[in-house]
Specification:
Number of strands: 5
Structural class: alpha/beta
Distance between the termini: 24 Å
Shape: globular
Radius of gyration: 15 Å
CATH architecture: 2-Layer Sandwich
Strand order of the largest sheet: 3-2-1-4-5
Order of helices and strands: EEHEHEHEHH
CATH topology: Nucleotidyltransferase, domain 5
CATH superfamily: Ribonuclease H-like superfamily/Ribonuclease H
Number of domains: 1
Strand content: 15-25%
Length: 147
């Protein structure tokens, strides 16, 4: 199956895509480790080649990796852009998984895209590691049967 990596990206207000601005920081959580009781995170404090090289090294022993986020339509574009810009490849491949879609499927309501957020333990405060951690915690609770 691979290692689920829960990711959250932050960008300046109003910047919606890599073509018009830079991401300010991002966070990643090794979901598999968290489920086993270990907290393994990565905090990218900028979008430099050095940061993405270090992130790539952090991902390497976890491969294959699966990108998971609250909103991959937003978060994935940033990570994908910088991996391709610097290394002409993305270790996540070409797709990601959306937590809200998983939740909607579990409860049988395609439009139920926000209720899962109450399952977070770590407060959502726009620090990307905290936000990714809270999302991973919610996903664990969903997999353990909470709705």
């Amino acid at each position: 199956m691979g290692t689920l990596i829960v990711v959250d990206c932050e960008a300046p207000f109003g910047v919606g895509a890599p073509s018009v601005g830079d991401m300010t920081e991002f966070g990643a959580v090794d979901f598999n480790a968290l489920r086993e009781g270990r907290t393994e995170t990565f905090h990218g404090t900028d979008c430099s080649e050095e940061t993405f090289s270090t992130f790539r090294e952090w991902l390497e022993p976890r491969k294959p990796v699966v990108f998971v986020s609250d909103n991959p339509a937003y978060d994935f574009q940033w990570v994908n852009f910088y991996f391709w810009r610097y290394f002409c490849e993305n270790p996540f491949g070409h797709s990601g998984r959306r937590i809200a879609d998983f939740y909607a499927g579990l409860v049988g309501d395609f439009c139920s895209t926000q209720k899962w957020k109450r399952l977070r333990r770590t407060k959502h405060d726009h620090h990307p590691v905290h936000d990714a951690l809270g999302n991973a915690e919610a996903l664990i609770r969903m997999l353990d049967g909470e709705r």
